[in-house]
Write a structure and sequence with these properties.
- By secondary structure, the protein is an alpha+beta fold.
- Helix content is 59%, strand content 10%.
- The relative contact order is 0.11.
């Protein structure tokens, strides 16, 4: 639900404006309407924002630029030395000093490499052979016409370079120590400074949002407060010298949005925020989004064993036992998704890739509530006589869920749009709702024997006639009927192609669940093949490694798909048919 708001207009003496803002900030319940150009027009505020960005950068990188450059230079030297040590390692433990002494005595050693197939023994002494190449040394330089040989420069041996590497490693340890010392001395102070700087930015932005009047003597400020907080705010304002008025927001006001939901729905508000907060006159989609997203996620996972793992992970995150930054504060929703996946996964018959519905050790009573038992037959298929073939029960279930989801979206659109814009502006939407939802209801009731063939025909004709009037004749009251008919035909084309595509999109719920189950089963089969008919310790170790790695990988991929695709079904198929705009602004009160 969307919390009801009150719009406040404050009139303050400019001389007392700053003190009034301090009082308003202490109250901490008013969302101040800020000017869009307040930042660009004020150099002081821009400087404060730049300082905050600089502090965030320092906190993120954990050191000054100079300390990081010093460390990077040492690391680059270390990489170069290791590469050089690897290059000269095959030349053995030679002494660069003795080579230089020989050179001074008139014996100038030369080192070469060439393909093994082209090497001649008279060229020199072979030091090493590797990867089809020969590495050799000679006192006299080879003639220039021997192009197959490449000279090699040896300044230090690998053993001598290892000593240099140890010295540079010591420099790297010292560089890391300087960074750690800087962090101990500065990180807490920077975090505190960032908090103060952000509060200063917030205060300056609010301060710049006031409009001066009476030649600068008065300042006008606007804001919004939740209706249930108005009494406390009014008591605070009565102690100031400001004049204020409180009224209901108009349609033109950009009223901030504060959602108010129960403990279950509140977990899914983060998903609503990902798309966009509702406008003040819109509906809060979270109470519908939450249960359907949970159902979609569970169908995509399709495995009770994976659901139990998600409950465990969510619980550890919720209790702070498992620290994963990207999942911070999401332990509750992960547990909820795990519970849903466990229940739906059991009903689908999946448990770590094992099909419970065909397992001989599974009691028959435990299979009574599985989907294949409730809706299918021994093969898990539903016969469709009109098409002369059978369809998988999960595929039919996914399509039915899609039809229900879209029909619900269309119903919500009609009701909420009528509340916002009036019935005249939504006649076309009501026409489509009567045609699609009304037609489906009549066909379902006819299929179960409530209506006979004649009554069904009459009801369908009546529904078609009423819908046609709304879609083609009265879709825009007051406009030329011929134009309305043309607009209705175009709308019909869009609806016919769009609705069909939207419903078929829900097959992804069936496909993802099927793919995850088959992949889990494949890893089980691989493990069983390794185990064999005569298992021993090593075979058991191989079995455990394959099954563990396989199911962890499958769970991670399943969770990714189970998050992305249900989110797409919600953001595209559902929100489009529900007419949800999601362009509202989140309620952000001016407070410390």
């Amino acid at each position: 639900m969307i919390t009801k708001m009150k719009k406040y207009t404050f009139l303050i003496m400019s001389s007392a404006y700053e003190q009034f803002l301090l009082t308003l900030r202490e109250a901490g319940v008013v969302h101040v309407t800020q000017k869009a150009n307040g930042l660009a027009d004020n150099a002081e505020l821009q400087a404060t924002v730049d300082r905050a960005d600089e502090i965030r950068r320092l906190l993120k990188q954990g050191a000054t630029d100079q300390l990081l450059r010093d460390k990077a230079e040492v690391e680059a030297r270390l990489v170069a030395l290791r590469k050089e040590a690897e290059r000269v390692a095959l030349w053995g433990n030679f002494s660069s000093e003795k080579i230089e002494q020989l050179r001074e005595a008139g014996y100038d050693l030369h080192f070469y490499t060439c393909p093994e197939s082209k090497f001649l023994e008279e060229w020199g002494i072979v030091v090493a052979q590797q990867n089809g190449s020969v590495y050799f040394a000679t006192v006299d330089a080879l003639p220039e016409n021997v192009e197959c040989c490449q000279p090699v420069v040896l300044n230090k041996s690998a053993q001598e370079l290892e000593k240099d590497i140890e010295s540079v490693n010591a420099l790297l340890v010292a560089a890391n120590a300087r960074i750690e010392a800087w962090q101990l001395a500065n990180m807490d102070a920077l975090a505190k400074e960032l908090q103060e700087t952000e509060q200063s930015i917030d205060f300056q932005r609010v301060s710049l949002s006031g409009d001066t009047a009476a030649e600068g003597a008065l300042t006008l400020l606007e804001g919004f407060c939740p209706a249930d907080q108005c009494e406390a705010l009014n008591a605070t304002l009565s102690q100031t010298s400001c004049y204020y008025e409180a009224e209901d927001p108009s349609k033109e006001d950009k009223t901030p949005i504060k959602l108010r939901n129960n403990w279950f729905t509140r977990m899914f508000e983060c998903l609503t925020g990902m798309y966009g907060m509702p406008n003040y006159g819109e509906f809060d989609p979270t109470p519908i989004l939450g249960p359907f997203f949970l159902l979609f996620f569970a169908l995509c996972i399709g495995d009770a064993g994976y659901g139990l793992l998600l409950i465990l992970v969510g619980y550890l995150i919720y209790k702070g036992k498992l620290k994963i930054e990207m999942f911070d504060g999401l332990g509750g929703i992960i547990m909820a998704l795990g519970v849903g996946s466990t229940v739906i996964g059991y009903m689908m018959g999946g448990f770590f890739g094992v099909d419970l519905w065909v397992a001989s050790w599974m009691p028959q009573g435990a299979k009574a509530i599985m989907f294949k038992t409730l809706f299918g037959n021994e093969s898990g298929m539903i016969p469709v006589s009109a098409m002369g073939q059978d369809f998988d029960v999960m595929m039919i279930l996914a399509l039915v869920i899609g039809v229900v989801h879209i029909c619900l979206a269309m119903t919500i659109k009609c009701i909420c749009s009528t509340q916002r814009f009036g019935f005249k502006e939504t006649i076309s939407a009501w026409g489509w709702l009567v045609l699609i939802v009304g037609g489906l209801i009549v066909l379902i009731l006819s299929g179960i024997g409530v209506f006979g063939p004649q009554a069904t025909s009459i009801l369908l004709i009546a529904i078609a006639a009423v819908s046609a009037l709304g879609i083609f004749i009265f879709n825009t009251p007051g406009r030329n009927p011929l134009i309305n008919i043309g607009a209705g035909l175009w709308d019909t084309y869009g609806m016919a192609t769009g609705i069909l595509g939207d419903v078929l999109s829900y097959i992804r719920l069936y496909a993802l669940g099927l793919a995850g189950g088959m992949l889990g089963m494949a890893f089980n089969n691989l493990g069983t093949m390794v185990l064999g008919e005569t298992p021993n310790v090593w075979r058991w170790i191989g079995f455990i490694l394959i099954v563990t790695f396989g199911h962890v990988l499958n769970l991670l991929m399943a969770c990714l798909g189970a998050f992305v695709h249900p989110l797409r079904l919600t953001f595209v198929e559902y929100f489009k048919n529900a007419g949800y705009e999601g362009s509202g602004k989140r309620y952000s009160p001016f407070k410390k």
